[in-house]
Amino acid sequence: MLGPIVRWEDVHGRPVQEGGLDTVLFNLGAAAGTVQIGLRRERIAAGKRGLPAHVHTAEGEEFFVVLDGEGVCLLQATGKGDWEPEEHPLRGGTLGSLPAGTGVTHAFRAGPSGLTYLAYGTRRPDDLRWYPCSRKVWFTGLGVIGRLDPLHHWDG
Asked: Can you give the pTM of this predicted structure?
């Protein structure tokens, strides 16, 4: 059975403008009826950041294609302390992947002309998303997000 057929121009965007973020998210996968894969178009305003830096625990590879504009992909191995990522330049036509199981935290920041890209990846209900800058964890399958305090392994 074929899912809905949609044009991305008809998919309504969800603006996110908080804490230095200024982006519009278009959930193309959901609009087309996908369940186990995701496809999102994100349009980041000039000089601003997209979604918060995060890493997945269970989802497989993520793949992105820069459609237009310029900016940087910010990458850092999880557990390396403060968020001081490597910057990788992006421009229209750039492709990139974030392989599964690497523990690499990632985010995007637009350059002076803004940045628009497509992001594709698998969706798993057992995935946890860790946001190192805010120390939040999202229990994706439960729809619950919370903040964790650092503890020593043997505390309590």
From this structure: 0.87
